[in-house]
Amino acid sequence: MKKIFIFTFIFQFILGYSQKNIKMFFENKSDTISYYADNPDVYPVSIVFSGQPELENMRNAETFRTTQILSPKTTRNKVAIFVKIDKTKKWGIKKMPSYFSYLGDVSIKSYDANYKYDLPFKKGKSFEVWQGYNGNFSHRNENALDFVMPIGTEIVAARDGLVIDEVHVNNRGCATESCANFGNYISVLHSDGTIAQYYHLKQNGVLVKIGDTVKQGDTIGISGNTGWSNGPHLHFVCFLPSADHKKTTIKTLFRTGDGSKTEFLTEKKIYSKNY
């Protein structure tokens, strides 16, 4: 009975640190304890453990990996297997490390740097990039772009992908960091593992839902002025998933003008989309 109590306590401890919809569970059979994880979401999820398990009279049947990637819509992903060493002695798991889970694959280090993105607005429109890569206001050490545009402007997908996150309920914005958590946005996962985010959308201005597949040029949202913003604009950023709570943001090439030219966008310049 004591062994079962210890295992159950550990399981609850892990759940207390989990995020998203990951379900972690274990099975105790004879002299083996196996841990599994279910990922019911439509996108890959990374689970990152804080360290190694503390074992008593047990060994890892396989190398315990502190970072593990769970494929979308999968069950019984093997996380760890522990085997008793000496059946005549006390055995068990003293401590299973806590973990956090993250959208996407945090192990990805390379991506398609030559992909040609579409400007994230409709054909026939022109907007100024008010703040560019590594800007002086809020883009320090961040490769992001701010397109100045009126509230109500249609936003389109800059690249094909899968909608993995969205917030649409907020109706608040201000020019200070105190409003940072009130921004509406859409996150789209691309085929190379990068994620694009479209920020500051108006309340109920998200026109897609999690699990939707979007094509380049599809209308996905309506621009606004929610969150940390000093005026109506669209904040566009593309990044690699990370487990250190810091986005590894990347510069993206855009088709401009009639679509025949590809370039990195520059601050204080107006860009037109005629394709």
Topology:
Layout: H1 2-17, E1 23-29, E2 32-39, E3 45-49, E4 54-56, E5 58-60, E6 67-70, E7 74-84, E8 92-95, E9 99-103, E10 116-118, E11 126-131, E12 144-148, E13 154-156, E14 161-167, E15 173-174, E16 184-189, E17 195-206, E18 213-214, E19 219-223, E20 227-228, E21 233-240, E22 248-249, E23 253-256, E24 261-263, E25 270-272
Parallel strand pairs: 10-23, 15-20
Antiparallel strand pairs: 1-2, 2-7, 3-6, 3-9, 4-8, 5-7, 11-12, 11-25, 12-21, 13-19, 14-16, 14-18, 16-17, 17-19, 17-21, 21-22, 23-24
**Low-confidence runs:** 1-18
Largest sheet composition: 11 strands, antiparallel
Order of helices and strands: HEEEEEEEEEEEEEEEEEEEEEEEEE
Radius of gyration: 23 Å
CATH homologous superfamily caption of the largest domain:
Glucose Permease (Domain IIA)
Helix percent band: under 10%
Task: Please tell me the total number of domains.
Answer: 2
Principal-axes geometry comes out as elongated
The fold-level CATH name of the largest domain is: Glucose Permease (Domain IIA)
Structural category: mainly beta
- CATH-scheme architecture of the largest domain: Distorted Sandwich
- The span between the termini is 69 Å
Overall pLDDT: 90
Number of helices: 1
Number of strands: 25
The CATH class of the largest domain is identified as Mainly Beta
Outline the structure in words.
It is a single chain. By secondary structure, the chain is mainly β. It contains 1 helix and 25 strands. Strand 23 (about 255) and strand 24 form a beta hairpin. The protein is elongated. The N and C termini lie far apart (about 70 Å).
